[in-house]
Design goal:
The structure is a single chain. With 502 residues, the protein is an alpha+beta fold. The protein has two domains: 240 residues, Beta-Lactamase, CATH 3.30.450.20; 149 residues, Histidine kinase-like ATPase, C-terminal domain (Heat Shock Protein 90, 2-Layer Sandwich). The chain is built from nine helices and 17 strands. The strands form four sheets. Strands 1, 2, 3, 4, 5 and 6 form a six-stranded antiparallel β-sheet that branches. A five-stranded mixed β-sheet has the order 12-14-15-17-16, with helices on one face. A hairpin with a 5-residue loop joins strand 1 and strand 2. Helix 5 runs antiparallel to helix 6 and helix 6 crosses helix 9. It is rod-shaped.
């Protein structure tokens, strides 16, 4: 393999990688990032849902406690300092509710007067912040997590005034067991981690420590009755799936891009092949132009002699029928000269003066010639003209040449004695004059239809292969189109469209 071939192959593979690999990586990355964000959103929603559930549960827990505490304070306020009765109320409430570590009646000075738990020593709570705050605000307040002086348990304490108007009867305190709070959280716990922190940011409750090397998504919210913040952490099980997602999309995108690449590559090859084919056809036309130019003079010389002799014969023979035939011969000699000139059109277009003619009249002028040839070939000929004028801007002799070439091909395609039919139809269709030449001859194979307008292509042993090429060039020069449809053994349908003069 030569150096140039190696360079060409390297360039080819470099272009391929730039077109397929690089876009696949970029597109797959964006898809994977989008999927990653969807995963994060999914787990964020899960964390948000978990924290709402636990916040509602904790709010209910605290709310029930506050409600019972305020109800007890109202009840105690009606006891008129009957400490024994108050003691029974507190003790009964304590025994019925496992959430309570103890209930206490405290005077405005902070001295503990009544306790649902046995007292072994003197207790004063005036130094507690929540106690002072309850006295100041006259509202229920909560303490931070602390160790109870009576029970020695980890608790939080709620304090509410006995009489909000005077505060003379002191405060009612309830100690809430923190382990019971945690238990209420764990009762509805699934696989999330719940962390409760106080207003200072210190952790009050943590259901379990985070697992190392695990990715957590969290969400937080405030508790309504107590200055706590509850946080729910859920494990993102798909945190490490980015590469898997990336490679999944990479395979799909790479496949699609390669498929598109192959389609485009095939299209470009087809376009290149078509361009090369057009170049070959162009070279054929150039060769044809040179041949036509070199032979046109030699053909015209004998035609001039023939034309002169026909003129002499027409002068000697005055028979009306003979004169008609002489006129037709003269016209055909003139047309042969025009055809020789038209060969030059294939490679070297000539400027012609376009005039406006009725297509019906053009066909009527050549109808006798076509009828004569059809009779000779034992073919039925029909010409159906349009009821409307079909005014087209054209070179009349060129249109005649096209129609005569087409009818000649049709007649050659029909065998003698085979009920051949040749039809020419003219009609107006939108802004076009449409001329159709229809026969029921042997037809053209499907694989040959694309070649019929190529120079020198012919299916007739005696044909030159230039007839349809000249026809197409003439119709193209008239801004028209010519199309051929054919079915083997059924016939051929040629349609010419030329813009009407409006």
């Amino acid at each position: 393999m030569g150096k140039s071939n190696i360079i060409r192959q390297v360039r080819k593979w470099t272009i391929y990688l730039l077109i397929t690999l690089l876009p696949s990586i970029v597109i797959s990355y964006f898809f994977a990032e989008h999927e990653k964000q969807n995963i994060l959103t999914k787990y964020q929603m899960k964390a948000s849902q978990c924290v709402k559930i636990h916040a509602n549960n904790l709010n209910n827990f605290i709310g029930e406690t506050v409600g019972r505490l305020e109800m007890l304070s109202t009840l105690i306020n009606t006891q008129h300092d009957d400490l024994d009765n108050i003691y029974e109320i507190l003790k009964e409430t304590h025994e019925k509710d496992d959430r309570f570590s103890g209930l206490y009646l405290v005077d405005p000075n902070g001295d503990l007067i009544v306790s649902s738990n046995p007292l072994t020593h003197y207790v004063n709570l005036s130094d507690r912040d929540y106690f002072q705050k309850a006295l100041e605000t006259g509202e229920t307040t909560f303490s931070q997590k602390h160790i109870g002086r009576v029970t020695k348990r980890a608790i939080i304490t709620a304090a509410t005034p006995i009489n909000k108007d005077t505060l003379t009867k002191g405060l009612l305190l309830v100690s809430i067991r923190l382990d019971e709070v945690e238990k209420s959280i764990k009762n509805i716990l699934k696989d999330e981690i719940i962390i409760v922190k106080n207003e200072a940011g210190k952790t009050e409750i943590e259901t379990s420590p985070p697992i190392p090397n695990k990715h957590y998504i969290e969400d937080s919210t405030e508790i309504a009755h107590i200055p706590w913040t509850i946080t729910a952490k859920v494990v993102n099980d798909e945190a490490d799936s980015f590469l898997n997602i990336f490679f999944y999309y990479f395979v799909i995108v790479m496949f699609i891009i390669n498929l598109v690449y192959l389609v485009v590559y095939y299209f470009l090859l087809h376009k290149k092949e078509k361009r090369e084919k057009e170049q070959i056809e162009h070279q054929k036309l150039e060769l044809l132009a040179k041949l036509a130019a070199s032979t046109a003079h030699e053909i015209r010389n004998p035609l001039t002699g023939i034309k002169g002799l026909i003129s002499l014969l027409s002068e000697e023979n005055k028979d009306q029928k003979a004169q008609f035939y002489f006129g037709v011969i003269q016209n055909e000699i003139t047309r042969i000269n025009a055809i020789v000139s038209e060969l030059l059109l294939l490679g070297r277009p000539t400027a012609y003066a376009f005039e406006t003619y009725n297509a019906n009249d053009i066909v009527k002028e050549i109808e006798p010639i076509i009828q004569s040839e059809a009779n000779f070939s034992n073919v039925e000929f029909f010409a159906k003209y349009s009821e409307q004028q079909l005014l087209i801007s054209c070179v009349k002799d060129q249109i005649k040449q096209v129609l005569l070439n087409l009818t000649k091909n049709s007649l050659h395609a029909m065998e003698l004695g085979e009920n051949g039919k040749l039809t020419i139809l003219l009609e107006k269709l939108q802004d076009d004059c449409v001329i159709q030449v229809i026969d029921n001859g042997k037809g053209i194979p499907r694989d040959k239809l694309d070649q019929v307008f190529n120079p020198f292509f012919t299916m007739d042993e005696d044909g030159s292969g230039l007839g349809l090429t000249v026809c197409k060039r003439i119709i193209d020069s008239h801004n028209g189109t010519i199309t051929i449809q054919s079915i083997v053994n059924k016939g051929t349908h040629v349609e010419i469209r030329i813009p009407l003069v409006m």
